[in-house]
Specification:
Blueprint (H helix, E strand, L loop, with lengths): L2 H14 L3 H39 L1 H4 L2 E5 L2 E4 H17 L9 H25 L5 H20 L4 H9 L5 H23 L5 H10 L1 H4 L1 E10 L38 H16 L4 H8 L7 E9 L3 H4 L2 H8 L8 E6 L3 E11 L5 E12 L11 H19 L5 H11 L11 E5 L8 H7 L9 E6 L6 E12 H24 L3 E3 L1 H4 L4
Length: 517
């Protein structure tokens, strides 16, 4: 360094108040601070990377991927999984019985279910309808049961949730999905229960669908025309067939071979049966003779079926012929079943069944037999005591006004069934095939000659509920009326759902949706 430059440097150092040693110390301190900052930044970056790795492994990024957008609101693959995985598990469980569905169909069904629930909840909110106390209790109960189900299967709660609802489901998201599902169901049921139909509505439906609702009485003989399969297989090996001796001549008369069954021969038999009956012969006797020895043929005398059931026993052509408005008692015809044979039909009657009941509204009082603390079932003495109590309640009713309101008041006061006592023991829509009650209960409600206002006592033999029922028949609905009402309600509900769903359009992210499953 030149003398002038050293002098200048000393002047600068003097001006700054730092000696040469101090400047070196300052430089080293600055390097130390730079290293510390560098190491701190590296540590922060590494920490962030670790957090991101943990988040990635937790499925958070996948969990929140948008699978569908409904009315501008995004819904994740996790929420679609709420509907997808339980159904996929069901199909897998019953695959051995032929119940199958491809993943694409299951995904679309899941999106459709989500769309419907979201639309229903939006409509409920617009109407001011909120989840009932019972609905909220159901949500809480189902969430509380997760631990029990997990323990029963020997797994953790999170593992159980993932096995049922998919790999990304969490308790919080499951609660949201379950709440939405139950609210949608409540709102749907509320609307359905509010749909009412007058007698004129039912009559109009009957007029338009009489061929399905009327009952038809007929006799039928099926003449088989399908040729029996014969074994035409032969040995086609390379070895030459062994020579056999010619059969000895026989003097016994040869047995005649049975004529081959053909559509032509079946048609001739069917036409002959028709002709003989029209000439005054007895249909039953002639039909039985016509099918004798021909196993695939059949004969049914004076059978009565609902119009909607005719195609399952006969076929569409037979149904159309029987339902012809010009049909009269005694009319007959022959109807071909392609490559199978011929029906010979005789029309007897057509009518609307005004005696068969398809559903009933009942009120009941449940009297449960007492069970000892250390027992699992009531004794005979306890059952008899319960029966005596039930008879006493019935006697009390018959000594009073004998009205539906009087029975309801008695049920509210005395029934052991907590689920219906507040509604006066009312159960609506009981059907002959209902499994909610013992067979004796439904048999009583639909017994021949049963009238509105009838009362009776039947035993309750269901495990854990043994005792007796005091029953009051409040209303009967004829089978055809029940069918008409259900059909009208189904149509109206379908139209209503379509309208609601169209008001809340859905778009699907196919790429993300494909991750479900």
């Amino acid at each position: 360094m030149s003398a002038s430059r050293e002098k200048k440097q000393r002047q600068v150092s003097a001006a700054s108040g730092l000696t040469e040693k101090q400047r070196r110390q300052q430089a080293e301190a600055q390097k130390a601070r730079s290293k510390k900052i560098l190491y701190t930044v590296i540590g922060v970056v590494l920490a962030v990377l670790v957090i991101l790795l943990l988040v990635w492994n937790s499925g958070l990024f996948d969990r929140n991927k948008v699978a569908a957008t409904i009315d501008g609101q995004d819904y994740s693959i996790t929420e679609v999984g709420y509907y997808y995985y339980p159904m996929a598990n069901l199909y897998q469980q019953y695959a051995q019985y032929g119940l199958t569905a491809d993943e694409e169909t299951l995904r679309q069904d899941a999106v459709d279910s989500l769309h419907q629930d979201v639309a229903l909840c939006a409509a409920a909110e617009a109407e001011g309808y909120t989840l009932s106390e019972e609905g909220q209790a159901s949500v809480d109960e189902q969430m509380d049961q997760l631990s029990t189900y997990a323990a029963q299967n020997g797994v953790s709660k999170s593992y159980y949730i993932h096995s049922v609802y998919g790999p990304y489901m969490t308790e919080s998201i499951l609660r949201e999905c379950l709440t939405r599902d139950i609210l949608a169901s409540e709102y749907y049921d509320r609307h359905s229960d509010g749909l009412e139909y007058t007698a004129d509505d039912l009559q109009t439906y009957y007029t338009e669908n009489a061929d399905q609702l009327d009952s038809f009485t007929y006799s039928a003989a099926f003449i088989n025309g399908a040729a029996a399969e014969t074994d035409t297989s032969s040995d086609t090996g390379d070895t030459a067939p062994e020579e056999t001796a010619a059969p000895e001549e026989s003097t016994a008369p040869a047995e005649e071979a049975a004529p081959a069954v053909t559509m032509e021969s079946a048609k001739a038999t069917a036409d002959q049966l028709l002709s003989d009956v029209q000439a005054g012969g007895d249909f039953d006797a002639l039909a039985e003779a016509a099918i004798e020895g021909d196993d695939p043929s059949s004969y049914t005398d004076s059978n009565t079926l609902l119009g909607s059931s005719l195609t399952s026993s006969l076929n569409a052509d037979c149904q159309a012929w029987l339902a012809d408005a010009a049909r009269e008692a005694g009319d007959m015809t022959v109807i071909e079943v392609a490559d199978q044979g011929y029906w010979v039909l005789r029309f007897e009657d057509r009518f609307l069944d005004e005696t068969s009941y398809g559903s009933a509204d009942v009120r009941y009082i449940s009297v449960e037999a007492e069970v000892a603390e250390d027992a699992t079932a009531p004794t005979d003495e306890a059952l008899e005591a319960a029966r005596t109590e039930a008879q006493g309640l019935l006697d009390e009713y018959t000594a009073g006004d004998q009205t539906a309101d009087a029975f309801a008041a008695l049920a509210t006061e005395r029934s052991d069934d907590l689920g219906t006592k507040d509604s006066g023991g009312l159960y609506e829509g009981l059907t002959p095939t209902s499994t909610a009650f013992p067979t004796a209960f439904t048999d009583w409600a639909f017994a021949e000659g049963r009238q509105v206002g009838d009362t009776g006592i039947v035993e309750n033999d269901l495990e854990g509920q043994q005792g007796w029922y005091v029953i009051y028949l409040q209303d009967h609905t004829l089978t055809w009326e029940n069918t008409a009402r259900n059909a009208l309600r189904s149509t109206d509900l379908s139209d209503w759902l379509t309208e609601i769903e169209e008001a809340h359009p859905v778009t699907v992210n196919e790429g993300n949706l494909a991750q479900v499953g």
